[in-house]
Amino acid sequence: MTAFREYQKTGYSRIVNTAVIVDNSLYDDNININESSVFEMRNGIKNIYWIDGKPFS
Question: CA 19 to CA 14: how far, in whole Å?
Answer without folding.
Answer: 15
